[in-house]
Write a structure and sequence with these properties.
Elements (H helix, E strand, L loop, with lengths): L27 H10 L18 H11 L7 E2 L14 E2 L2 H15 L3 E2 L4 H13 L4 E5 L8 E5 L12 E4 L5 E5 H5 L5 E4 L2
C-alpha cells in the first residue's frame, strides 16, 4: 500500500494525513488504517535521532490529529493547541502531555482517563480501541523526564484482549506490537476520546 501524506523531515511541522477518522465515523478498520498510514517502524519522522532523542510525542500528535482529536505538539501558556512556531507557543514532550495537558486542557477537550485499576484499565483500553476510539497508552516518569506515549491498536486477530497492542515511536518504533514491547513492566495509564 502506498501512502501519499506529507511527513515533513522537520518534526516540529504538522503533517497531513490521507486517512482520517472523525468522531462521528469511528470504526476499528478506519482506526487501523489511520495508524498504519504513518508507518511508525520505517518512517524517518519517527526514528530516534543520532543524539538519542525520540519522537513518541510527534507520532501521538500526528495520529490524534488524523483522528480529529489532536493532542498538540505546540501549545500556548494555557494549554490551548497552537500552530507550530506560533508566537508564544512552546513545543510539548510526553511528560508535559501526561502530567498536565491530558488531565487539564485535554480533559476539557474530551480526553478521559480509563480507570485507575490496572486490572481493569488494560482490557477496557483495548475494548475501546476495538470499537475504533483513539486510545493513548502512557507512562509518566516519576523523575519528570523521558516519559513515553503510544497508541493502542484495534485487536483484529483474536489476540488476548487483556494484552493491548500498540503502535509507537520511540527508542524502537513499530506499527504493531504488545504493550510490553513499548513499556516493559512500567505502570501504564490509558486515555481515550470518542
Amino acid at each position: 500500500m502506498t501512502y501519499v501524506h506529507v511527513l515533513p523531515s522537520n518534526r516540529a511541522r504538522r503533517c497531513t494525513a490521507v486517512y482520517t477518522s472523525e468522531p462521528k465515523f469511528r470504526s476499528p478498520a478506519q482506526y487501523d488504517l489511520v495508524l498504519s498510514q504513518f508507518n511508525a517502524d520505517e518512517e524517518f519522522r519517527y526514528q530516534p535521532a543520532p543524539n538519542g532523542d525520540t519522537f513518541c510525542n510527534i507520532f501521538l500528535w500526528d495520529v490524534t490529529s488524523a483522528m480529529g482529536v489532536e493532542v498538540p505538539h505546540w501549545v500556548l501558556a494555557d494549554g490551548t493547541p497552537a500552530e507550530p512556531g506560533a508566537p508564544g507557543a512552546k513545543e510539548t514532550l510526553a511528560t508535559y502531555l501526561l502530567n498536565a495537558w491530558l488531565p487539564g486542557p485535554g480533559a476539557k477537550r474530551g480526553w478521559v482517563r480509563v480507570g485507575s485499576d490496572p486490572a481493569t484499565a488494560r482490557p477496557s483500553a483495548q475494548a475501546l480501541a476495538d470499537k475504533g476510539f483513539p486510545v493513548i497508552a502512557g507512562w509518566l516518569n516519576p523523575r519528570g523526564v523521558h516519559s513515553h506515549v503510544a497508541m493502542v491498536r484495534p485487536n483484529h486477530f483474536g489476540r488476548l484482549a487483556s494484552v493491548p497492542r500498540i503502535a509507537q515511536a520511540g527508542g524502537r518504533s513499530f506499527n504493531d506490537g504488545p504493550l510490553k514491547d513499548g513499556f516493559g513492566a512500567k505502570p501504564v495509564e490509558f486515555w481515550w476520546h470518542d
